[in-house]
What does this fold into?
Amino acid sequence: MNTEYTAPAQTRIGHVHLKVADLERSLSFYRDLLGFELTTMYGDQAAFISAGGYHHHIGLNTWHSKNAPPASRHGVGLYHTAILYPTRKDLAVIYDRLRKANYPISGASDHGVSEALYLNDPDNNGVELYWDRPKDTWQYKPDGSIEMYTRPLDLDSLLKELD
It folds into this structure.
């Protein structure tokens, strides 16, 4: 295997496709709470949703999972889907929305390069909502690697973005 290949810098993760137990319940979370737009449905078995008119950022389907229990927390599979917001204020808006809906948040972290909220969708799939700090503010270790850490996120400071 050629280990000298590096993916092009413009490479991005295009979308995530999740197996869900109840399509309408998942749409209530991703569309109605998080604000993604429905772009298309495949009958009553699949839905594609996006932000900003893209064909889809998230696919949801019940093809092999209708009414199934959540995946085991200790099994293999997707750890979380990370949704990147363009600004800190946008992260504050969604945090305020979750807070007002009394939707449970399992964590909130400052990672140095980003700030993140953690929660689970209705099928217990992990979801990270985050924004990246500007790249020119990132800190680097003496060996050139990025300085990242996990510290508590100051949620009061985040909400001040809404003032």
